[in-house]
Specification:
By secondary structure, the chain is an all-alpha fold. Helix content is 80%, strand content 0%. The protein starts with a helix and ends with a helix.
């Protein structure tokens, strides 16, 4: 509850880098979802990108 009402500072460069990776992944996933929803189709290269995103998510979460 305290974290919800206050700023939490983390002095860990690796954590900051991992959070940055997750934000980039989130952006990529949103772009892929927009294409899939707009065209009701997902090109093969987007599926490859999804696989890469999933691998990065797993890698990042395993470090936390």
């Amino acid at each position: 509850m305290a974290a919800l009402e206050k700023t939490v500072k983390v002095d860990n460069p690796q954590f900051a880098a991992d959070v940055s990776k997750m934000l980039n992944i989130s952006s990529n996933l949103n772009q892929i979802a927009k294409v899939a929803n707009t065209y009701q189709f997902l090109p093969k290269e987007y599926i490859t990108n999804l696989d890469e995103c999933l691998a990065l998510i797993k890698e990042t979460l395993s470090k936390l």
